[in-house]
Amino acid sequence: MIHPTAIIDPGASIADDCEIGAYSIIGADVSIGSGTTIGPHVVIRGVTRIGANNRIFQFASVGDDPQDLKYDGEVTELQIGDSNTIREFTTINRGTVGGGGITRIGNHNLFMAYIHVAHDCIIGDRIVMANGASLAGHVTVGDHAILAGFACVHQFCEVGEHAFVGLNSVANRDVAPFTMAVGNYASGKGINKNGLRRRDFSEPTIRALHRAYMLLLRNHGERDKAIAALSAEAAEFPEVARLIAFIEKSERGVVR
In terms of domains, do 19 and 134 share one? Predict the structure, then answer.
């Protein structure tokens, strides 16, 4: 299952049923879980923990040093969960000491070609990043979010659960959960209704989220009054409560 031209450090921990392609390089502090397939010409370095049933395609660079001038060789880590697909020329960097020391990726994510995930990013589950999308350092992406082709997210920003960032868009503020952000620089385009319907959200939930979006992100009145006006929806629909909580804790401000 390991091609004879692959270079595997004796210190690496690799499950017996892993497949590693030609000319790939696996470093000493790497562990790879059962059922994972590594294509040809892949480089995996650093303290990198990869779970089960992942598929990493050719020419990906996984777990290399963070692209941060403050990085001075400290031991930091990359953690990747299970059943992720990482396509060609994707780069995923380890964390930095100043950012907590870990870049973390969840489960069942799809990273298409030429994706960049920088140091200290926290990625949830079932996220899609289309070709050329990039995350700067310290970015958090919630479950089921989608970043379209060449979308970029500024450092220290957060993309909420079930959010959509459009083609060529630059998010320099947080993207609220369940919403769409489109344009350069990205501006709000309402609730991600099509995405929510594909994931079987009920129509009453979608209507409640739409009302919350209009009051919180389209109404230029006082936010406290908008939140008070949504008290009934927040009590009935947990998604509305999560949207309000996201906006309240945002430090960079939210895309409107």
Answer: yes
Model pLDDT, residue 149? 98
Helices (H), 97-202: 193-198
Give the β-pairing of 55-56 and 85-86.
parallel
Instruction: Return the pLDDT at 80.
Output: 99
* Dihedral angle sign, alpha carbons of residues 93, 81, 98, 150: positive
Of 220 and 85, more confident: 85
Percent of the chain exceeding pLDDT 90 equals 96
- Chain mean position to CA 232: 32
Place of tokens 């899609």: 128
The one catalytic residue in 27, 29, 33, 119 is: 119
Q: Which of 99, 137, 142, 160 is catalytic?
A: 137
Query: For residue 29, which of 73, 63, 80, 71 has the smallest C-alpha distance?
Result: 63
120 as an active site residue: the answer is yes
Selected catalytic residue, list 41, 46, 95, 120: 120
* Domain assignment present for 92: yes
Q: What is the pLDDT of residue 184?
A: 86
Specify whether 20 is located in the same domain as 134: yes
137 is catalytic: yes
Domain that includes residue 221, residue range: 196-249
Q: Is 65 a catalytic residue?
A: no
Q: Which two tokens stand for residue 255?
A: 């895309």
